[in-house]
Amino acid sequence: xxxxxxxxxxxxxxxxxxxxxxxxxxxxxxxxxxxxxxxxxxxxxxxxxxxxxxxxxxxxxxxxxxxxxxxxxxxxxxxxxxxxxxxxxxxxxxxxxxxxxxxxxxxxxxxxxxxxxxxxxxxxxxxxxxxxxxxxxxxxxxxxxxxxxxxxxxxxxxxxxxxxxxxxxxxxxxxxxxxxxxxxxxxxxxxxxxxxxxxxxxxxxxxxxxxxxxxxxxxxxxxxxxxxxxxxxxxxxxxxxxxxxxxxxxxxxxxxxxxxxxxxxxxxxxxxxxxxxxxxxxxxxxxxxxxxxxxxxxxxxxxxxxxxxxxxxxxxxxxxxxxxxxxxxx
Length: 330
Hints:
- The radius of gyration is 25 Å and the shape is globular.
- The chain has a two-stranded antiparallel ribbon with strand order 1-2.
- The chain contains 17 helices and two strands.
- It has helices spanning 2-8, 26-45, 52-57, 61-76, 92-95, 101-104, 113-126, 136-149, 157-166, 180-207, 209-226, 233-244, 249-260, 263-272, 275-294, 296-314, 320-329, and strands spanning 14-17, 22-25.
- It is mainly α and 330 residues long.
- This is Major facilitator superfamily (MFS) profile domain-containing protein.
- Residues 1-322 form the Major facilitator superfamily (MFS) profile domain.
- InterPro entries: MFS_dom (IPR020846), MFS_sugar_transport-like (IPR005828), MFS_trans_sf (IPR036259).
- The chain crosses the membrane at residues 27-48, 113-135, 180-200, 212-231, 237-261, 268-288, 300-318.
């Protein structure tokens, strides 16, 4: 997103659209470009076939077999004719008829799954590191000014943020002006997070998703606390970037959900548990914005402390490595 913004934002055009009462400019064009992948994904979904199990449950066996053959062809790059299926059989759940939709969610709130549902939902709720991304452009922009001028290197991150809040608007500077250096730094942060995510994926099978989430949360949470204990702009920003990497733990939580819940409830659990994080985000963004304006240090300590506490909560979940071994033996 940062790279795309660099060539588009400086474009000087501006067309008035009387029907909407707005000026169509480079910023609106950029948002349209950002929305294009989602629009394309929506169109591609129109060509995605239904689940073969769902189609079979509706009584369309031949259509279900055709879908399975299509999946086999794409996965193995072989003709569908090479994959012979004589017929399909109903599983135990389908033999007793479809489960009423209102009862499908009930097992998630009964033992032994209730514990997993509550803990994982709370883990998503406590992971509000993403709320700080709203302030990322401001922080990066102020930091680049320090780098370019050399003034203010002995300051903490909250001191840098307070400058952006207290400085009056300069009427001679174009609003929302583009700082290419800041955008390139944002690009670097995203690239480092992608690289870190790749490295984690190489070792997570040995360590386990639960253990990796615990270690990762402790490191990132502690970094968020240390951010403002250092009166050095460079070191403070480095610890802030480590803290921001905490968003990667959400993928580990999803993987834990897949490992802990049985197959017939897995999709429902994956859809339900992140709801805690979504609800928390609605509240955390305005709360964080207010805290960073009136008491920045408290904002970092509170949000980092909550995120750090999720490591202790995750310790009550079973080690997913042993769960996988048990399933393989079965």
